[in-house]
UniProtKB/TrEMBL annotation:
Family affiliation: Belongs to the aldehyde dehydrogenase family.
Keywords assigned by UniProt, alphabetized: NAD, Oxidoreductase
Protein name as catalogued: aldehyde dehydrogenase (NAD(+))
Assembly and binders: Homotetramer.
Organism whose genome encodes this protein: Methylosinus sporium
Record has Transit peptide as a keyword: no
Length: 510
């Protein structure tokens, strides 16, 4: 770790990147929201925030824009998303560098986040010609029954700091081709990348030329602004990504007014390592899934359930990987693990490790690093913790790089341990035994929204539906048929005969 970097260098670099992406500097100078870089922990921008009146105007404009946008043919709407994908391609490196500066991701992961945004644009462009309904057999002669899908309305998008811009793109690209308008409330920890992303979207809008004013709004502020967005009756769907605590607050408020929700909340993801597991591959997959993004992915591997016959060998190899994985400045090419987002995050990690130690957990790593050179930043060596059995600390999500390892004796017990947590997001099994793999994927296997074989739980592709069960919230985004959440369905029955037969043989002759 070089100590020479001053935050002012980073602030100047962030400003230059914002300038290149054409974000007006008035939006991030002299505002009320201090933006810090986790690389040094110091303030790099002061971002303008919006109050509830500005949100009210943005929702009003989005609502008016929706009424026009819904009548533009979907393939034409797809053209706007195609142009946005082009803007993202052109600015990929600049936007990725801002993600590194603001969220602390290493370079390849930051570029990966922008690539994911490009991928969802490509997907949504194709989808804009595939928003199909069904024709269904009817019991009545001379009739036809079908379903049609219509645009839904204004979609509120609330996002978390750890995927500061890709989560918006997942929602926005699909919602736009579905004919919806957007209001985005990003994490208060990552407003610069949100401003940059929205500026790129506005460039696409300008090139497209025929989108109604107010089709997409960005409102920056804290939780109160999110609450206002959630409570506004003009917002038909809220897609909220963040902690389970946030979802627990948001879900009932939306249900209260019968609005739709997509909740993408926390995870406590496990992997089962079986006797036949390919060990080299397993160690690499576990290392990326558990330590990558400094443990700050919703799909981060947090629990490892290892067959007793391979436990010692695997833990031996993993403890070496944990001791040697390069932690440091995420801008440096050799770094694999960047900083935690802030001090609260490190304190939560410390608290969990102290709790694990108090119940006899054997801990490798977990120390704070570079506290002298960078006193306001929070770098930590990832922690591997051996536990004799599951405990409250391993049953909750601590959003930091901690992996709890436990032994199992038979697969039924391992499946029980894997599912015996309140979250249900991502899971994996490492095995070359077909029976074990299929049992893991079966109805009595993993209860998660994502269940993988011989790859880790993190690193989803946009073609599949993404989301999880139980306290992960039940929502699905991205591929497969997730688009249906952004549209409303109508069932239509058409009588092309001159008779009027009633369903179920009902007779009503007047
Ligand atoms: P967070 O819950 O602190 O904040 C997320 C967003 O919700 C922010 O924009 C915040 O301002 C807003 N918010 C908070 N309380 C709110 C309320 N009552 N009403 C309206 N808005 C509110 O989460 P975070 O720390 O930014 O992100 C980390 C968490 O997000 C982890 O738990 C992680 O697992 C989860 N996450 C889940 C997914 C997923 O797809 N399942 C993806 C990324 C992150």
């Amino acid at each position: 770790m070089e100590s020479r970097t001053k935050s002012s260098d980073i602030a100047a670099r962030a400003e230059e990147l914002m300038f290149r992406i054409t974000v007006p500097s008035a939006l991030f100078h002299d505002g009320k929201l201090n933006t810090r870089t986790p690389i040094t922990g110091e303030v790099i921008a002061r971002v303008k925030t919006q109050d509830s009146d500005a949100l009210d105007v943005a929702i009003g404009e989005a609502h008016a824009a929706f009424r026009e946008w819904r009548n533009i043919p979907a393939p034409r709407r797809g053209e706007l998303v195609r142009l946005f994908g082009e803007e993202l391609r052109a600015a990929k490196n600049e936007l990725a560098e801002l993600i590194t500066i603001e969220a602390g991701k290493i370079v390849s992961e930051a570029r990966g986040e922008v690539q994911e945004m490009i991928d969802i644009c490509d997907y949504a462009v194709g989808l804009s010609r595939q928003l199909f309904g069904l024709t269904i057999a009817t019991e009545r002669p001379g009739h036809r029954m079908m379903e049609t899908w219509h645009p839904l309305g204004v979609v509120g998008i609330i996002t978390s700091f750890n995927f500061p811009v890709a989560v918006w793109a997942w929602n926005a690209a699909v919602a736009l081709v579905c004919g919806d308008a957007l209001v985005w409330k990003p994490s208060e920890k990552t407003p610069l990348t949100a401003l940059a992303t929205h500026a790129l979207f506005e460039r696409a809008l300008a090139r497209f030329g025929e989108a109604p004013k107010g089709l997409s709004a960005l409102v920056i502020g804290g939780r109160e602004l999110g609450e206002k967005l959630v409570d506004d009756h003009r917002v038909a769907l809220v897609s909220a990504t963040g902690s389970t605590a946030m979802g627990r607050a948001v879900g009932p408020r939306l249900a209260q007014r019968f609005a739709r929700s997509i909740l993408e909340l926390g995870g406590n993801n496990a992997a089962i390592v079986c006797p036949s597991a390919p060990l080299d591959l397993s160690v690499r997959a576990i290392a990326f899934a558990a330590m990558g993004t400094a443990g700050q992915r919703c799909t981060t591997l947090r629990r490892l359930i290892v067959h007793e016959s391979v436990y010692d060998q695997l833990i031996g190899r993993l403890s070496l990987a944990y001791a040697s994985a390069p932690v440091g400045d995420p801008r440096e090419g050799k770094t694999l693990i960047g900083p935690l987002i802030d001090g609260d995050s490190y304190r939560a990690m410390r608290h969990a490790l102290d709790e694990a130690a108090s119940i006899g957990g054997k801990i490798y790593g977990g120390q704070r690093l570079f506290a002298q050179e960078r006193p306001d930043a929070y770098y930590a060596r990832p922690a591997l913790v051996e536990l004799a059995e599951p405990s409250p600390v391993s049953r909750r999500e601590t959003f930091a790089p901690i992996l709890y390892a436990m032994k199992y004796h038979d697969l039924g017990e391992a499946l029980h341990m894997q599912n015996d947590v309140s979250h249900g997001l991502a899971s994996s099994i490492f095995t070359t035994d077909l029976r074990e793999a299929e049992r893991f994927l079966s109805a009595e296997g993993s209860d998660c929204g994502i269940a993988n074989v011989n790859i880790g739980p993190s690193g989803a592709e946009i073609g599949g539906a993404f989301g999880g069960e139980k306290e992960t919230g039940g929502g699905r985004e991205a591929g497969s048929d997730s688009w249906k959440a952004y549209m409303r369905r109508a069932t239509n029955t058409i009588n092309y005969s001159s008779a009027l037969p009633l369903a179920q043989g009902v007779v009503f002759d007047v």
